[in-house]
Specification:
By secondary structure, the protein is an all-alpha fold. Helix content is about 60%, strand content about 0%. The chain is built from 17 helices and no strands. Helix 5 crosses helix 8 and helix 9 packs antiparallel against helix 11. It has a single domain, classed as Hypothetical protein af1432.
Length: about 325
């Protein structure tokens, strides 16, 4: 028996009956030989961490566009915080921590530069529409490794595409990531908003904080502990009614006072205009994109509109600004 098989046996001996067992995975679209050391979900986690789209997350906006400070969240730090919360819940409930981690690390790979502003811009101009959760799936199924994709297991891909609020993951681990995403961005966006002096802890309505807690630490502990207590030995991930309502109401408060706040979003219209201009330009100049994108159109018969979205969605904030300046801003020259 090799190390992977020993790990699979440990899963059978220690995990909940509702967990996703590596040995019973529905597998990959392209069959591969198993690893002697890692389970299938561990391999998926490693493939995501080593892919280019994951590395680019460090230069993509989470909420605050172009913040002047080193401690504001990026899309990468958000992803890591979701992973940490999700793994804590999975471990406490004896679910498959490796599957949970893989889904969490891959859930936002398809996010555009400038966060949801970029997503909205591409959805406005692309006739086929654009949504980051579908793009995340497209990244791992097609775009990575120059059109080969990462060949992830079906369980990981299901969790990635279903991490949105209205998603319906087929595994408990996917459900853990979906709720961990909400917990992470609510609490960490509050932290960033306080750092940016958009609001203070005292501005948060007492009707929510008296239930959830009066600090980031207290709120995280309250939400995570409630999920563990309510979901223990059950085939679902749930919260108590009072905590669930307070969390949703606090989320609504954040949408009203932070996510649409001019201080946080003052540059958003500029970002949207910029990305829309890039989209129109590359739609008319396909051969100015990198070869791997041209190949998708010419050899894989992908639509030009979709591939232009692929290219722009993959850009970091800085790279998109640089490309815009190259294409639309006149440069000075010296004799």
């Amino acid at each position: 028996m090799n190390i992977r098989q020993e790990s699979e046996e440990i899963e059978f001996a220690t995990l909940s009956e509702y967990a996703s067992f590596s040995r019973y995975s529905k597998g990959r679209d392209t069959k591969e030989d198993e690893c002697d050391i890692r389970t299938c979900y561990q391999r998926d986690r490693d493939r995501i961490i080593h892919c280019k789209a994951f590395r680019r997350l460090k230069h993509k906006t989470q909420v605050f566009l172009a913040p002047a400070g080193d401690h504001y969240r990026t899309r990468l730090t958000h992803t890591l915080e979701v992973s940490q919360i999700a793994r804590t819940i999975a471990k406490a409930l004896r679910m498959n921590e490796d599957l949970t981690e893989a889904i969490a690390l891959g859930h936002d790979l398809g996010h555009t530069p400038f966060g949801h502003a970029g997503e909205s811009a591409l959805n406005d101009v692309c006739k086929e529409g654009f949504a980051h959760y579908r793009q995340s799936l497209r990244v791992v199924e097609l775009l990575e490794k120059k059109g080969q994709g990462l060949n992830l297991t079906k369980e990981v891909r299901d969790g990635i595409v279903n991490h949105r609020t209205s998603g319906n993951p087929s595994t408990i681990e996917g459900k853990i990531v979906r709720i961990s995403d909400k917990i992470a961005y609510i609490n960490h966006d509050i932290d960033d908003a306080i750092r940016g002096k958009i609001l203070s802890e005292e501005d948060l309505p007492a009707e929510y904080t008296d239930i959830l807690g009066h600090s980031k630490k207290e709120r995280l502990n309250t939400m995570i502990l409630d999920i563990v207590r309510q979901s223990r030995n059950k085939p679902d991930i749930i919260m108590s009614e009072i905590i669930d309502k307070a969390m949703k109401d606090l989320r609504n408060f954040m949408f009203k006072h932070v996510y649409s706040n001019p201080m946080a979003k003052g540059e958003e219209n500029k970002a949207k205009t910029m990305l829309k201009s890039l989209y129109q330009y590359y739609l008319e100049h396909l051969h100015e994109m990198p070869e791997e994108y041209i190949w998708l159109v010419e050899q894989k018969n992908e639509s030009a509109a979709r591939v232009v979205c692929d290219y722009i969605a993959g850009m970091s904030d800085q790279y998109s600004v640089r490309k815009y300046e190259e294409l639309f801003v006149p440069s000075f020259w010296m004799s």
